[in-house]
Amino acid sequence: MADLQTRYRAEKKSFLDRLNSGEVVIGDGGYVFALEKRGYVKAGPWTPEACIEHPEAVRQLAREFGRNGADVMQAFTFYASDDKLANRGNKAQENYTGASINAAGCKIAREVAEEINGLMAGGVSQTPTYLSGAGKEKVQEIFEKQAKVFKENNVDFLIVEYFEHVEEACWAIEVLKKTGIPIAASLCIGPDGDLHGVSTGECAIRLANAGADVVGINCHFDPQICLDAVQLMKDALDEKGIKCHLMVQPLGFVTPDCNRQGFIDLPEFPFGLEPRIITRWEAHAFARRAYEMGVRYIGGCCGIEPYHTRAMAEELSKERGFLPVASEKHGLWGAGLKMHTKPWVRARARPEYWKNLKPASGRPYCSSLSKPDAWGVTAGTEELKQKKDETTQKELEALYSKADKN
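Request: output the structure for the sequence above.
Response:
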């Protein structure tokens, strides 16, 4: 790979043209978690008003993902639906409106996509309206508002992502399909299926039949578990003879102890997950396995930082024909360490060392695995019904009591 250039993509091709020709499309990473750590997103609502309040922060993170090899600049519109922006005391809808946040996110993503000769995508995600059982018509009204903004901003493709229930994802696809823009749809589920008990393979079939051009998995589970789930999707699609591209955008955390609900059920979520962060070398291994499975849209979600994206792009640089620009400052497989002052560190300047490393946590009294909370609530459960008013202290006390009993 030493003869490969570090550069952005030289050619301008559409999303589906790239996938149809067998090219690898590298997605970006987890804006929500990255910007929360940087002080621009509030944990709890996880909404993207930073697109208006701090556009420079969103733009800089996008540029870092692009510099590190991402082909896709996804507008930071996660949870930017009107109902989520006004949920449980959130004032983002009141202060800015969903339309303005979605438009601002598109503007930033388009700007950076043009800089890197990349693709720009707009995305929708699951809604409080669905979780509250308001029905298909009300839920689709939410998606229609976002679709209008994405159409006006001429996005290259649309992403239906972070859905725990395939039913709601299919409702979203039904709305977005009217735009005529290609759709990539991914669920935040694992090998056990969605939260209503629909199998992972059946979920893929329903997404494809609803009109998605690409189907797959994002978030909630670690890279290897997500790939296990994608394999189930692939097998089901192949069995039915359905031709559909595959995508995967996992967590940047190791989560072998998750149950059906994923990492949200882990006691460390969201403020104690750092010991679980995957290494860049694990990102290498993930990208290689994904490619060998036939997945061609490979990216990341919560916990995936730009250096993870660089690792994926470096792993697949031979297939892509070039290295990411950021590889100018990164020796492949630790090669830059040969310049280190300490001889034992120079001895680590080889792939064998990093491929075989078993990293320690440095926490001798901590367990290697956790026990998920497993409350077992999902759409249709009374406790999961959402509201505009802030959660009261009385309601919190009831939750504390239940948590202590568990």
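The beta strands are 25-26, 72-74, 119-124, 157-163, 183-187, 214-218, 245-249, 297-298.
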